[in-house]
Amino acid sequence: MAERKAWSDQDRLQALALYCRLSFGQLHRERPEVIHLAEQMGRSASSVAMKLSNYASLDPEVRALGKKGLSGASRQDRLLWERFIADPESVAAESESAWVELDPFGDSAEPDEDYTGSEAYALQRRRIGQSLFRKAVMVRYDTRCVITGLRHEDLLIASHIMPWQARPESRLDPANGLCLNALHDRAFDKGLLAIDDRDRIRISPELTGAAPNGQLKAQLHDLEGQPLILSPRAFPNRDYLAWHFRECFRR
């Protein structure tokens, strides 16, 4: 059994990177990713799983879904989480840098110097920082679709307003994200849905100009002109929305 040892700041950052890659139901000692990370860190899988559950107890996304993690998060855990909420870009950069340094699953890519995000190749391509971007967006919008109010982690997507390739320096900026359900994420990505300068939903004439069937009418057509569901502390960057409206919206 792995020897018990104190958690360093680096360890906490690596655990945070894994936490943001897993769903709530995967935070247990039998999960392969947890076992592998524990082996790399010289810890028991139970120790790593407990740390992940400590993060869950601090996570507003978990609470918003009516769940809870393990109590007992340390002061250092709380300080790291508070920093992540206050400055997600910086903490995401630190966490992903620590993750790549550990290289627990054989990813050979190094992070970009400015930590705007990069692509790594292993068994499949993944985007470094994407999981932490998603977590930051979910927390920002209280795990609620800004169009429908839907709350279900498996049906919600952290949508980039300006696409990954369009503005590298904004890839991990939570203000470049919207919490959308899968259907409206797809419509937004394809330019069939956009947000105007009054935070109101606009639907492409490609959809509104045709006679809608029942499903299309209820799910897209009738959204034209409706306001986003936003709180005073959760709103997207208006410059990003203006770019999407100008460059992507199919008018």
Give an overview in words.
- Pfam families: HNH_2.
- Keywords: Endonuclease, Hydrolase, Nuclease.
- Residues 145-196 form the HNH nuclease domain.
- With 251 residues, the chain is mostly helical.
- The chain has two domains: 9-107 and 124-133, no CATH class; 141-247, no CATH class.
- 42% of the residues lie in helices and 10% in strands.
- The protein has eleven helices and six strands.
- Strands 1-2 form a two-stranded antiparallel sheet. It has a two-stranded antiparallel sheet with strand order 3-4.
- Strand 5 (193-195) and strand 6 form a beta hairpin.
- Helix 5 (75-86) crosses helix 6.
- The longest helix is centred in the middle third of the chain and has 15 residues, at 88-102.
- The chain starts with 8 loop residues before the first helix and ends with a helix.
- Mean pLDDT is 85; it is low at 106-115 and 119-126.
Instruction: Assign an overall shape.
Output: elongated
Contiguous low-pLDDT stretches (5 residues minimum) are 106-115, 119-126
Largest sheet: 2 strands, antiparallel
- The rounded distance between the terminal residues' Cα atoms is 62 Å
Order of helices and strands: HHHHHHEEHEEHEEHHH
Number of DSSP helical runs: 11
Please give the domain count.
Answer: 2
Report the structural category: mainly alpha
How much helix, percentage-wise, in residues?
A: 40-55%
Mean pLDDT: 85
Q: How large, in whole angstroms, is the Cα Rg?
A: 20 Å
Strand percentage: 5-15%
Strand order of the largest sheet: 1-2
In total, how many beta strands? 6
Protein name: HNH endonuclease
Pfam families: HNH_2 (PF13391)
GO molecular function: endonuclease activity
Organism: Halomonas alkalicola
